[in-house]
Amino acid sequence: MKVQFIISWVLRGLGALAVLVYFFGGMKLGEWFPGLVGKSLNPLFYAGLVLYIVGAVYYRILFKKERKIQEAEYREEKAKAALKESEKTSDDITNG
Question: Residue 36: what pLDDT?
Answer without folding.
Answer: 67
